[in-house]
Amino acid sequence: MEHEIRVLTDAQEVGRSLEVFLTAMVGLQRPDSDQQHEFMEPGRTVGAYVAPERLVGTASSFTSWMMVPGGKKVPQAAVTDVGVLPTHTRRGLAGALVRHQLEQCLGRGEVLASLRASEATIYERWGFGIASNVAQVEISVPRAQFRDGVPRGGDVRLVDLRERADQDLLAKIYLGANWVGAIDRPSYWWRAKAHMRELSKDHHYAVVHGIPGHEDGFAVYTPEDATAWFRSRDRGIVVGDFVTTTTRAHFGLLRYLLSIDLLQRVILDPMPVDHSIEKLFTDERAVTSHGARDETWLRLVDVEAALGARTYRAPGQVILEVRDDLLRQNTGRYLVSAQGVARTEQPPDITLDVGQLACAYLGGTEFWQLAQAGRIAVHKDAQLAVADHLFGLRRAPFGGTMF
User: Fold this and answer.
1) Which PANTHER family does the entry mention (predicted)?
2) Which of 10, 43, 69, 398 would be a feasible disulfide site paired with 310, CB 3.0-4.6 Å?
């Protein structure tokens, strides 16, 4: 199919691209049309045209970083708003848009790209893999009695998300995000979030932890069903953003949320799959985890730089043969150890494509799981355990940011 991919350069073009995306997604909330371009980073939205002025597909991204094992913030593209009009799907346009984006990433020196996928069978064909998962955690307030040894945490206070200063405070706290899988939240993200709250029928409450000037966590929550709130016997809140940069903030904010009058349930969504919140209570059945789902879809844009950016556990080494049909410069063999990463011509221990490597990159999936599913080729059985040891983490990766 004849098409042209262009970088969109003016506000009207960007506004049309968002209309295309929302039409493709069908059910997403629409922002105010006069403000659409304010939520997009200039120069990072591309469009697919099938005639000189007929825009039928789009994709966008933000300049961002991702925290990888070892604590380094690696440059990445946060890919978003990928969509093709229903009249033009199944014609290769989404692939053309994503390829264009990845080539842009290379030109900008972005080592990674990540996204949140609306469908689970699309992005693997372009080298993306599921690198982290999340869960929904529900706490029964009447049953949630803290154990005696659980720390109390510090001071908390409510803030007003309608005030720009309080919005900026949350953004400042988030700069301390220090867990594997965390990504940057640029100013465009915060502006879009504030606008969507304005359009929402629900009231959003926010509480921060820590004394003024030294805040280290926040939680944003809404009533689960405000329409039935007055007569309900099962009132709950949904905490859609729970950010803590210290364990003290983690305990302090949880205690606050469970102390709010009238509540029977507190729902934290999203949360890491290994949150272990149930261990805090005398009755562990007060906590139910469900709704586990994929979160971070990761793409290694520059495999050598990505592998070299994270740390590995000693001892041992493994030789990975990586195949990348889209960005062929990534294809090759890599010797990985705690001492670093280097290309090699030695025989491989494991052969895999770049999307499967993305699954294991943050430590969220182990190589043995991929091998058991027939998704990678293992040439030396003993090296499978070595690879899992090298890439393994104490905690599961977690993004925590929808974009």
Assistant:
1) N-ACETYLTRANSFERASE EIS
2) 69
Domains within the chain, CATH numbers bracketed: 4-115 (3.40.630.30), 134-292 (3.40.630.30), 302-391 (3.30.1050.10)
Q: Look at residue 10 in the predicted model and tell me its pLDDT.
A: 86
Q: How confident is the model at residue 33 (pLDDT cuts 50, 70, 90)?
A: low
Per the CB < 8 A criterion, the answer to whether 355 and 121 are in contact is no
143 belongs to an annotated ligand binding site: no
Q: Which of 39, 123, 218, 367 is catalytic?
A: 123
The answer, yes or no, to whether residue 218 has pLDDT greater than 80, is yes
Q: Is 117 annotated as a binding residue?
A: no
275: which residues sit within 8 A by CB, 6+ positions away?
135, 137, 268, 289
Sheet with 340-344: list strands edge to edge.
Answer: 340-344, 332-337, 317-323, 350-353, 377-378
Q: What is the DSSP string of 124-161?
A: GGGT-EE--EEEEEEEEGGG-PBPTTS-----EEEE-T
CA-CA distance, 97 to 109, in Å (whole number)? 19
Residue 164, pLDDT above cutoff 70 = yes
Q: Please tell me whether 114 is known to bind a ligand.
A: no
Instruction: Judge whether 123 counts as a catalytic residue.
Output: yes
91 labeled binding residue? yes
The angle that helices 354-361 and 382-391 make with each other, rounded to 10 degrees, is 50
pLDDT tens per residue, range 306-347: 999 999 999 999 999 999 999 999 999 999 999 999 999 999
392 is an annotated ligand-binding site residue: no
Report DSSP state, residue 29.
P
Q: What is the pLDDT of residue 32?
A: 64
3-state secondary structure 220-235: EEEECCHHHCCCCCCC
Q: Report the distance separating Cα 82 and Cα 86, nearest Å.
A: 13
- Report how far residue 374's alpha carbon sits from residue 356's, in angstroms, rounded to the nearest whole number: 11
403 is catalytic: yes
| 92 appears as a binding residue in the annotation | yes
Q: Which of 33, 41, 38 is nearest to 16 (CA)?
A: 33
pLDDT of res. 226 = 87
Task: Consult the annotation and say whether 292 binds a ligand.
Answer: no
Per residue in 94-152, pLDDT tens?
A: 999 999 999 999 999 999 999 999 999 999 999 999 999 999 999 999 999 999 999 99
